[in-house]
Structures are given as C-alpha cells and as structure tokens.
Design brief:
It is a single chain. The protein is built from 7 helices and no strands. It has about 220 residues and is mainly alpha-helical. It has one domain (about 5-215). Residues about 20-25 and about 60-70 have low confidence and may be disordered.
Length: about 220
C-alpha cells in the first residue's frame, strides 16, 4: 500500500533536484515582458528613423541624393547612430527592470555566475557585429547595416541560449533568417529591422510571458 506514495515522493524529489540543477546552470529570471518592452522601444525608434530618412530623400521616400549636400548624409548618419544608441539604452533599461522584478518575485539572484556567462556569450557576437556595422557606415554601405544587425544579434542569442531559457535559441534563429533574407532586399532594411527587433521581440515576449509567467 505504501509503494505508490513512496514512488510519488521519489518522483517529487527527482523533480526538485532537476529544478535546482536548472536554476544553477541556467538564467531563468529573464522576463517575457523584457522582450515586449524592447520591441516597443525598437518600434518607436524605427518610426523616428523612417521620418528622418523620408525627410532626407524627399517626400514619398524617393531614393535619390541629387541636390543634397554631402554634409546632409553625414548628419543623417550620426543622427541614426545616436538614435540607435538611445533605443538600445532604453531597451536595456526596461528589460533590466522587468528581469529584476521577476528575479525578486522568484527570490533568485539577478547577477551570479550563470548570468555572467550569459552576458559574456552575448557580448562577443554583439561587439563583433557593432564594429562590423560601424565599418559599413564608414564606407556608406547602408544597405547591409540592417541585415548585419539582425544576423549578429541572432548569433548572440543562439550563443547565449545554453545559459538561459532554450526558447531564446528559436528567436535567434528567426533573427538570423530574417537578416539573411534582408541581404537580398537591402532597400527594405528599415522594414526588416522593424520586424526583427520590434515585432519578433513583442511576439516572443508575449509567448514567454504566457508560457512561464502567467498566473
């Protein structure tokens, strides 16, 4: 009569051990709302960039630089770089807040050995991609900026996925695929950038929130 209860106790003990091992090897405090907030920041930044680019090229977005001073191109370049930095900063701040809030509610540390490994594995592809994009901007290869951002960001997510929720890997693969397709449609870079950093983040964040945090 006691064997079923003992089996249940053993199963619960194994599940507890599994949960403890998962917590020690993976950063599970990442909040789905972090993805949503980052996506909203990206959409806002893309909207502002679209207005600036449209003003530069003329009404209707006609791709022609005839009649424009070279200084205007340099001015637009730096405005977009500053905007990208502001969007990144806002996304990091909001994402950190929601992750910190989830960690506090779950009574988990936000900065430990696992989160350090996660940050390091994300930083390497991101830094390499950042220098690559700066090189493209220096040579005025605008068409390849957006796809490069998507590909290197996707590589960073895939590289870091082994230290956090495995679902991050699929987001990374989607970002890489989107960037590769964008390579053949360079003139649509801002739209691909918006889809990758804005819409995909929001959809992913909502799925993660529903899967791990709802209720």
């Amino acid at each position: 009569m006691d064997s079923p209860s003992r089996a249940n106790e053993s199963l619960e003990a194994l599940q507890d051990i599994k949960r403890m091992m998962e917590r020690s090897s993976r950063f599970i405090s990442l909040s789905g709302l972090s993805g949503v907030s980052a996506g909203i920041c990206a959409l806002a930044g893309a909207y502002i960039a679209h207005i600036w680019i449209e003003q530069y090229y003329g009404s209707g977005g006609v791709v022609s630089r005839h009649g424009y001073m070279l200084e205007d191109a340099h001015s637009l370049k730096w405005k977009l770089i500053i905007l990208a930095g502001a969007v990144l900063g806002a996304a990091l701040l909001t994402s950190t807040f929601f992750t910190w809030r989830k960690a506090r509610r779950s009574n988990l540390p936000i900065w430990d050995l696992t989160s350090k490994k996660l940050a390091m594995n994300m930083a390497i592809p991101l830094l390499a991609g950042g220098f690559f994009v700066l090189g493209l901007l220096d040579h005025s290869d605008w068409d390849y900026v957006a796809p490069s951002c998507l590909v290197f960001y996707g590589l960073a997510l895939v590289n870091a996925s082994k230290y956090t929720l495995s679902d991050i890997r699929y987001l990374g693969l989607l970002e890489i695929a989107l960037g590769c397709i964008n390579m053949f449609y360079g003139h649509l870079g801002l739209y691909f950038w918006t889809a990758g950093f804005g819409l995909l983040h929001i959809v992913y964040g909502l799925i993660m929130w529903w899967k791990y945090e709802k209720g």
